[in-house]
Specification:
Two copies of one chain form a homodimer.
Chain A: E1 4-10, E2 24-29, E3 32-36, H1 42-48, E4 56-60, H2 66-69, H3 72-81, E5 88-92, H4 94-107, E6 115-119, E7 127-130, E8 134-140, E9 148-154, E10 160-161, H5 163-169, H6 176-180, E11 185-186, E12 192-193, H7 195-198, E13 199-200, E14 207-211, H8 221-224, E15 229-233, H9 241-246, H10 252-262, E16 266-270, H11 280-289, E17 293-295, E18 301-303
Parallel strand pairs in A: 3-4, 4-5, 5-6, 14-15, 15-16, 16-17
Antiparallel strand pairs in A: 1-2, 1-18, 2-3, 7-8, 8-9, 9-14, 10-13, 11-12
């Protein structure tokens, strides 16, 4: 199966600590990297994860709180110093470009590459980006400021050719691409060999959903449902449920409830409040509702 | 002797690595903290050094390259989240406020404390700040953009009272403050007891000089001379002397030459290029010229 890995670069909340970095993740899908959020210190965490800067071309920012975007200017500057030439694409709300433009003009003048912003609206539910491997859909979350989640939906891969059947029917190489794309094979004699005899179905496309800072909101189920892996913020334990509502965050139990309602395969929780020196309380509370829950942690990689 | 400690929070150069953070230092002088430069990740390094945020009221930024100031916005935001009420004073060139103002307006609106900028001109050689403990003088360096060094000159402390002499002459408590300030004591009988019999001289005031990014420039000797400790950038080894000149940086040997010409007591080198995985080559080259040289390193504290 081709790579679909989630690298956790930071999973703390607003106050960075010596235990947790500010929020950032990198998705490695078929060796292309996509970054979600970019808190302070992300570039160093990226190096620590031994990822390749040159494979990163798209960054998605969920909202404009500092712990989700203060690392952007440093990352962009470093790319310039390293001689990057490929355009870097940044997908977010229009305000991100407005607030970054003066910094880019001042600190990044004369860089050998371009930063291109791709703004989308606050309530956007569109596919905001797609390529051969993936489509990325935004959807609105319920936070103190405009905030969105992202659905990373893998594109279907071609069927696997059954080599022994190709040999059996003596099918010429020139036909392989067509068969991979689902066509039947017609022999010189006019016999139709059905595609299903010549191929094995590809692995089903995978789906990763990132729920950034948000209050629990059942309306999100429509976007989350069927995910192979759901990342959901879990800032607080259940004892702080009132504080979670007040600050537009979720408890671990609420994250698990979202996973359960949406029928996802696995749940990954993060964005931990600095008050927890051991997040097992969050894990335990989530697992009571949704057993297949795991804790995010800097440096860990979760495979879909 | 009262504290005059230099905490190294970051001593890498423009490209942060997993070994070195971007530039920042904190001076602890008599339990008041003064920060010099604030590269990305400084707030986390500050926590790691177990320093107290509430004792930090003044930040000095040497120049507007990202590796010396990208950590400011995160530090300022965090202070807001922690409920700080005391004004934070930022001393730098006027351009710093210009580039930070849009960020502060966007991200830090409604914080419970003020950030006050104290701009000074590019070629400034004035004392830009002073309080009861210290005066801070700026002086121009030779970098690709306007850049300055800082002289931290401790204020003289009061003389030490010789308690046994006070008892011997039966001097009342009400006279102690005067004697500390250098006055003689006149007995009720009219005899003059000279101050020098009643006190021991205070420790001589100490001087710390910070030479940020700069090409070697003998003109700086006038500011550096007589320092107890000189921090000088040493980005390159001698094999890269041409590159050092071209990029307006110094070699370790040039840093040592500045220390020798200025007659300082100790030299501390930092701002190491990412190309050196072991800085001993820099230390060795500096020590050939100025034996009393030490290597900066994250987490280390150097006492004056």
């Amino acid at each position: 199966m081709e790579k679909f890995d989630i690298h956790i670069l930071g999973c703390g909340s607003a106050l960075p600590t010596t235990r947790h970095n500010a929020t950032s993740q990198v998705i490695n899908l078929r060796d292309k990297l996509y970054m979600i959020d970019c808190g302070e210190g992300t570039q160093t965490q990226f190096r620590r994860a031994q990822l390749s800067f040159s494979r990163l071309n798209h960054i998605f920012i969920s909202h404009l709180h500092g712990d989700h975007c203060f690392g952007l200017i440093g990352l962009i500057s470093t790319f310039g110093l390293l001689g990057r030439t490929a355009t870097l694409h940044v997908h977010s709300f229009p305000e991100l470009e407005e607030v970054m433009r003066p910094q880019l003009d001042f600190f990044c003048d004369g860089m050998p590459y371009d930063v291109e912003f791709h703004p989308f609206s606050h309530g956007c539910t569109d596919i905001i980006y797609e390529d051969r491997s993936v489509s990325v859909q935004a959807f609105p979350l319920s936070h103190r400021v405009p905030c969105c989640g992202f659905v990373f939906q893998e594109k279907p891969t071609a069927a696997h050719i059954r080599r022994e059947m190709i040999d059996f029917y003596g099918i010429p190489f020139s036909q392989i691409a067509r068969i991979k794309n689902g066509e039947d094979y017609v022999t010189p004699e006019g016999d139709v060999i059905s595609n299903s005899r010549l191929t094995l179905p590809a692995a089903p496309p995978r789906k990763y959903v990132y729920c950034s800072d948000t209050r629990f909101n059942p309306n999100n189920v429509q976007y989350v449902k069927g995910a192979d892996l759901l990342f959901h913020e879990a800032t607080f334990a259940e004892s702080e449920v009132a504080r979670a509502a007040q600050t537009f965050h979720s408890t671990a139990r609420q994250a698990a409830e979202m996973a359960r309602l949406s029928g996802v395969k696995q749940l990954l929780i993060g964005h931990f409040s600095a008050r927890y020196t051991d997040e097992r309380i969050l894990l335990d509370e989530a697992r009571e509702v949704f057993p297949s829950t795991r804790l995010a942690e800097e440096g860990r990689v979760f495979q879909l």
